[in-house]
Amino acid sequence: MVNQKDKLNSASLEDRQKFYRNKALKLEQAVIFAREEVVQLKSELEDEQVKSRKAEQLKVEIQRKSAELKKEYDALNDQLQAAREKIEEAEKKIADLKRNQRADSDLSDEIYHHRVEGYEKLLTDMQKALNEKVNRIEIYERRIAILERRLKNEQKKAVPVPTPGDDHNDLKSRAVAFLNYVWMLNGFKSVIQGDVIIENTGSIPLKTPTVCFRFHPGDLATLKGRVVHEEDAYGEDREQGEHLWVILDTEEDQDTNQNGEIWVRPLELSDLLPGQSIAFNNFQIPIDHTYSDSVRIECFVFFGEDEYKIKCGNQIVISMVSREEK
Is 311 a member of any domain? Predict the structure, then answer.
């Protein structure tokens, strides 16, 4: 007959067995999640390496185009100087003819004036072409600077690869985001109008989302619509329950965008609860296609201080037929 002490020992052993079985299951689950996280991080690392290589290739191509444009600029500048000298020479001859009552073999004032008008038209056309080359050189130089900064930032990033068994508090952090937009074209000008929709699909609250728009090429980084700069935010009128989004300014980016990126977040900070969604509505991106036939805009969402981040499930891609192909 089993005594009371043996019964207690047996129950204790069963409880311990259940405890260690549950603990083993939890550890196995954590290992599975950790392995999934490792695969995801390795994939992100490969994507970043591919982007870095593409950016380097694009930088080389832009530098080549910039060098060609500088050569064209120098040639046009020489032609412009020669045209100015011819105009000055023609005007001097006209003045001499008026003073000396010109000889019969000399050309008339009318012919000289006609020639001067031709030189002036040539000078105006060359000045326009020269200004266009200068603008293109400045644009390509800005793009090279943005690419260089992006490459430096990518090289500084270190993607941590966790090992199985680490304590992952962010395994329950899950969110999705996507872009909903339309593109309106008018000649070489267009406008992208859309929304960024973010939803917490995990089981724990997420910090206030910050949205990053990354532009390719970077010098097109402009954002308008129902969004204001931080310093102007508190003077804005808005409807009840409306989320006002603000552009995050930094001291170095006050006048120009240095990285081809624009960061925005809701003015009122609040956690995004499980199952809850928030939207950055009616943003507008004006684009000048004069020097950009292809435009691509990526969108990332950060929760907290880089505690958790996601990439939008889609991106904005615009491609036009170049003028050379036409």
Answer: yes
